[in-house]
Amino acid sequence: METQKHPTQDIYALVTQKIIEYLEKGTIPWRIPWTKAGLPQNLISKKHYRGTNLWLLNACGYSRNIFLTFKQLKELGGSVKKGEKAHIVLFWKWIEKTRENNTNSNSEEPKEKQKIPLLRYYLVFNIDQCIGIPEISIPTISLPNEPLAECEKILEGMPHMPAIEHKEQDAYYHPGKDIINMPRMDTFVCSEKYYITLFHELVHSTGHESRLNRKELMSGTYGSTNYSEEELVAEIGANFLASQVGIVMDEHEDCAAYIKGWLEVLRNDMRFIVKASALAQRAVEYIIGTITIGELAEAKEQKELA
């Protein structure tokens, strides 16, 4: 894997500009369904891409969401079609630095070391951009079955899940009471829309102080940057969950308003989309129970140092 060494701020700008291009075309990339093309994954390692990479690669619109690096492609004996351009994959690289002590710079005592996260990226190609890949190397895509049953499995498996009530015809998460209120399922157009709405509120609930203690939820007031970021976290997180159970996301009727608001924030804060996507990924991992205590501690350290 050949890492691209650009300043972190340049990478934020690169990703943000890509998202702006999609939004200006009227496309919200994290709302594009994954079921037909499959979850984006690496051809060789079989691992699925995560966070921003998950929907950034999916938004490319290929018939099969299978990618590989140029080195992996050459090892298979394939090549890139003429005129095709690579896609970026983000990752955090931790480097160890010595903490300087200005008050005792001449001391012979061992200097304290700290780990600093640096955002980097490498390049991948979709298999549709390549020729010469042995067909036997390409996995078949299987579509999920019984999506409603899978939705219930997510709910049953979430640790420390908030209470879900159906007292009002309104969907919201109440941090103070730590409850989710949902309209009755039989008032939705279809069951899938019910679960999509519930997933949105479920992601909000992970920000509670007893779970991930996300300041974007706990301190956000309507119209603030924290509020906008928390809404985007819930939006992306709901899409992550929906994609896992095979639910196709539809565009909201107020799609134009969503796009206008996000474009404004994205242009003013190049870190916004990467941060929101990372928070959404963490929320989803909490819900499905795959995040570990060690990963939570590392994520907290990364957040404090970034």
Keywords summarizing the entry:
306 residues, alpha/beta, 2 domains, four-stranded mixed beta sheet, 10 helices, 41% helix, globular
Task: Write up what this structure looks like.
The protein is an alpha/beta fold and 306 residues long. It has two domains: 130 residues, no CATH class; 159 residues, no CATH class. The protein has ten helices and nine strands. The strands form three sheets. A four-stranded mixed sheet has the order 1-2-5-4. Helix 2 links the parallel strand 1 and strand 2. The longest helix is centred in the C-terminal third of the chain and has 20 residues. The chain starts with 7 loop residues before the first helix and ends with a helix. About 2% of the residues have low confidence.
Which overall shape is indicated by the principal axes computed on the Cα atoms?
globular
Largest sheet, strands/sense/barrel: 4 strands, mixed
C-alpha end-to-end distance: 24 Å
Number of helices: 10
Concise description?
The protein contains 10 helices and 9 strands. It is an alpha/beta fold and 306 residues long.
Which secondary structure elements does this structure contain, and how are they paired or packed?
Elements: H1 8-24, E1 41-42, H2 51-58, E2 66-68, H3 70-75, E3 79-80, E4 87-98, E5 113-126, E6 130-131, H4 147-157, E7 163-165, E8 172-174, E9 179-181, H5 191-205, H6 215-218, H7 225-244, H8 255-268, H9 272-288, H10 293-305
Parallel strand pairs: 1-2, 7-9
Antiparallel strand pairs: 2-5, 3-6, 4-5, 8-9
Helix pairs in contact: 1-8, 5-7, 7-9
